[in-house]
Structures are given as structure tokens and as C-alpha cells.
Design brief:
This protein has seven helices and ten strands. It is an alpha/beta fold. It has one domain: TIM Barrel (Alpha-Beta Barrel), CATH 3.20.20.
Length: 196
């Protein structure tokens, strides 16, 4: 069954919602330019009340590698999701520290899919862009040949079709789970039910 990642959690109530719905993954955004950015100490505090059935993922854009390792060592996160210009060596170094890596790829052509297939990361994430809230041309996803997270413009209305058609390992959503910029339990629930 396709797994669920709910991204951009930053408040205790967000964690409470997740603990009820039990997505397999939640994401904390550590990219400074994001309005969903959380401080490391807040992520650490939130993870302490997060269900142990849920894996916390840190979302990074060109973060110094020692900061990513420190967040893992503090227990705040268990996986790293990379959205910047991090090299394959960067991903390999995280893996040497026992940190599983999700590498994000913006998909606009078949060449992007080919690059994703070659990635050293544990998982690839195929997206329309960083938080654009729009889907990309799903017909580009043919024979990826490895587990992938699908992101970009997924909603409770279209995620069921995406799961049936593309069979992603996991689906990743953030903005569609919000009302006025904050996580909304009803929207999170509708999304989870649509996937399942």
C-alpha cells in the first residue's frame, strides 16, 4: 500500500493530528526561506510527542551537512530529504552516518527522470517544483524502476487517481493539508482516506 508523508508540520496540534491519522512519515522544513521553517529545538520537542509509528523527516536546501547530522543525533529526525544542489557525495556521507536519504527532483522532462533513476539516495521524490502546489506531467513517469515519493499538487481529490495510475512508494503533501497557512485536521484526514 502507498505510504503517506505529511510535510510542513510545525505546531503541537499538527503532531496531535498526525498521531491520530498515522501517516508513515511527517516532514519538518529546515529551509530558512520557507514560511514553514522550524527551529531545530522545536522539531526536537515535537518529535518527543510524535507517535513512534511515524518517521520524522528533515527537509533541507543546501544545509551544512553537520547540521543535518546533528538533527539526527538529537533525535529530531530520522531521515533527510534534500531539495538543493547537494552532491551525490553529500548524500553518500549522510548514508555513511546511517541517515536514509530522499532526494528531490523537479520533473519537467524525461531527462529529469533519468537523473532521478541514477541517484545514490535511498528514495527519490518526484515533484513539480519546490512547493509550487501544481502537478507535473505524470506521463513522464514510466518505468522509474525504483521506489519513489510523488509530490506536487496532490490533493484529496486527485491523489486516489495518482496512486492507482502511478503506484508510488509514497505520496507527499503539504499545502493541500492547510487552511490559512496552518495544518487542518479535516483536510489531513480527507487526504489520508483518499490514499488508503
Amino acid at each position: 500500500m502507498t505510504k503517506i508523508k505529511m510535510c510542513g508540520l510545525r505546531r503541537e496540534e499538527d503532531i496531535e493530528y498526525a498521531n491520530i491519522l498515522l501517516p508513515e512519515y511527517i516532514g519538518y522544513v529546515f529551509a530558512k526561506k520557507s514560511r514553514r521553517c522550524v527551529a531545530p529545538e522545536i522539531a526536537e520537542r515535537l518529535t518527543k510527542v510524535l507517535s513512534t509509528e511515524i518517521t520524522p523527516v528533515g527537509v533541507f536546501v543546501d544545509e551544512p551537512i553537520e547540521n543535518v547530522i546533528a538533527l539526527t543525533e538529537s533525535g529530531a529526525i530520522k531521515m533527510a530529504q534534500l531539495h538543493g544542489n547537494e552532491s551525490e557525495d553529500y548524500a553518500a556521507e549522510l548514508r555513511r552516518h546511517g541517515i536514509p536519504v530522499i532526494r528531490a527532483f523537479k520533473v519537467s522532462s524525461e531527462a529529469d527522470i533519468e537523473a532521478a533513476k541514477r541517484s545514490y539516495a535511498d528514495y527519490i521524490l518526484l515533484d513539480s517544483g519546490s512547493g509550487s502546489g501544481e502537478t507535473f506531467d505524470w506521463s513522464l513517469i514510466q518505468n522509474v524502476g525504483r521506489d519513489f515519493f510523488l509530490a506536487g499538487g496532490l490533493t484529496a481529490e486527485n491523489v486516489g487517481e495518482a496512486v492507482k495510475k502511478l503506484r508510488p512508494f509514497a505520496v507527499d503533501a503539504s499545502s493541500c493539508l492547510e487552511t490559512d497557512g496552518f495544518k487542518d485536521f479535516d483536510k489531513m484526514k480527507a487526504f489520508a482516506e483518499a490514499v488508503r
